[in-house]
What does this fold into?
Amino acid sequence: MARQIITTANAPTSPLYSQGVKAGPHVIVSGTAGIDPSTGSLVESTIQAQTRQALTNCEAILRAAGATLDDVIEVGVLLTNPTDFTGLNEEYARWFPSDPPTRYVAKLGADLPGLLVSIRMTAFIG
It folds into this structure.
């Protein structure tokens, strides 16, 4: 099965990884932070704002692959501060109000100044 590299100007980029990869009916979205792609900088320093931007970035990558949030089957979340869990959930629930995908949340091991959250997704286009 051939893989297709997914790229969009509507999400942050890096020369170290692909924004997403589509292989067959699967779309894998790389860990995406709350970075505004138009400025290349982190958005506000609240967990809600960074979660909202990270999910916006993930959604843009999904769209570039021909998928939507409704196709997402798994979400992985890395938090810098576990105490931000409640704030993360406040914003996350707006994006997946019913029948949410599976999810895991873990502590981010890297110490990156200002970064509060990173989100990755797997979607299935059936």
